[in-house]
Design brief:
The chain has about 170 residues and is of the alpha+beta class. The protein is about 40% helix and about 20% strand. The protein is built from nine helices and five strands. The strands form two sheets. The chain has a three-stranded antiparallel beta sheet with strand order 1-2-3, sandwiched between helices. Strand 4 and strand 5 form a beta hairpin. The protein starts with 5 loop residues before the first helix and ends with a helix.
Length: about 170
C-alpha cells in the first residue's frame, strides 16, 4: 500500500501509518471470488478487474466490497502500480439476501396452499404461476396450464362476449 485515503481509514479502521507499506490483501484478509492468481492474471492481460471481495476491518468485522482495480503504467507502458477503489456493499447484500429469503418463503407458502387457487397471470393474460390449490380446484396440472391463456377458465359464451379480456383489463 503506497496510498491510503481518508475513505479507506473510515471504511477499514486502520490509520494511514498502519496501512502504508502493507500488502493490501494481507492487511484486509481478502477473500476472492476466484483465485488471487486469476485476478492477477486478468489484471496483467486486460489491465483491469472488477468484482466483489470480502475484506476484514480492523475490528474483525467482515464486509463485502465492490472492487474496481486498474493497472497504472509508466511512460514506457511498464506496470508500476494497481489502483484499487472499493465500495462497501455489505448492507445492500444483506438486504438482497433478506429479500431473496422472504421471496423464497412466500413462494413456498403460496405453492403449498391447497384450499385456494393461487396463480399469476402475465399482462397478456397467460398463466405464469400455478399452485397445488389451483391444480386441485381447477383440474389442470402445472405443466399443462403454464403459458396458456386465462380464457381457458371461462365458458365458451363468456369467452365469446370478451369477458376474460374485460376482467384482465
Amino acid at each position: 500500500i503506497s496510498y491510503w485515503s481518508r475513505g479507506a481509514i473510515e471504511m477499514y479502521g486502520w490509520r494511514r501509518e498502519d496501512a502504508l507499506g502493507q500488502v493490501t490483501h494481507s492487511l484486509l484478509r481478502t477473500q476472492f471470488p476466484i483465485s488471487k492468481e486469476d485476478v492477477d492474471d486478468t489484471l496483467r492481460r486486460h489491465g483491469r478487474w472488477e468484482g466483489e471481495l470480502v475484506h476484514t476491518r480492523r475490528t474483525g468485522e467482515r464486509i463485502v466490497v465492490a472492487s474496481r482495480q486498474a493497472v497504472q503504467c509508466d511512460e514506457s507502458g511498464r506496470p508500476v502500480a494497481t489502483l484499487e477503489i472499493n465500495t462497501d456493499i455489505t448492507q445492500s447484500k444483506r438486504v438482497q439476501e433478506g429479500l431473496r429469503d422472504s421471496e423464497d418463503r412466500f413462494r413456498l407458502l403460496v405453492e403449498n396452499v391447497q384450499d385456494y387457487a393461487i396463480f399469476l397471470l402475465s399482462p397478456e393474460g397467460r398463466v405464469a404461476s400455478w399452485n397445488i390449490g389451483a391444480q386441485r380446484l381447477k383440474g389442470y396440472v402445472r405443466d399443462e396450464i403454464l403459458g396458456q391463456p386465462s380464457s381457458r377458465f371461462y365458458s365458451a359464451e363468456d369467452a365469446a362476449l370478451g369477458l376474460p379480456e374485460q376482467l384482465l383489463e
